[in-house]
Design goal:
With about 130 residues, this protein is an alpha+beta fold. It has 2 helices and 6 strands; from the N terminus they run H-E-E-H-E-E-E-E. The chain has a single domain (about 10-130), classed as Roll (Thiol Ester Dehydrase, Chain A), CATH 3.10.129.10. It is globular.
């Protein structure tokens, strides 16, 4: 099951991310946190938030070259407020610049009230998607 991604990404499927927008250098990814994704304080674990931003940026980069994957080279993250475990979170991504082989993108995670929870920038390397084996 691809959850709208058009390709199978097992870890993303495990987390339940859903791709809502994938066009023109922009992406939107929806995420409903599960109990097993929370930290000791009952907030969404920072690693899950980073994965959401990483995925959102990669999809923004892929949206202009969907026959390729976008492999993370580096990522800088800032956390503003915790993601509440009961709230749906939304990642909004944007491709800032690209070359033939690299993409530079940003993503922000928003809670249900529209407040920014975290922001990241990243650099990605375009790589052809693997050919499905028979």
């Amino acid at each position: 099951m691809s959850h709208g991604f058009g390709i199978s990404i097992p870890f993303i499927e495990h987390l339940g991310f859903e791709l809502l927008r994938f066009e023109g250098g922009e992406s939107t990814v929806r995420y409903q946190p599960l109990a097993q994704h929370l930290n000791i304080f009952g907030k969404v674990h920072g690693g899950v938030l980073m994965t959401l931003m990483d995925t959102t940026m990669a999809q923004a980069a892929r949206s202009v070259q969907p026959d390729h994957g976008a492999i993370t080279i580096e990522m800088k993250t800032s956390f503003f407020r915790p993601g509440e475990g009961s709230q749906v979170l939304r990642g909004e991504g944007r491709l800032l610049h690209r070359t033939r082989t690299l993409a530079f993108a940003e993503a922000t995670i928003y809670d249900e009230a529209g407040q920014a929870c975290a922001h990241a920038t990243g650099t990605f390397k375009y790589s052809p998607l693997p050919t499905p084996s028979n």
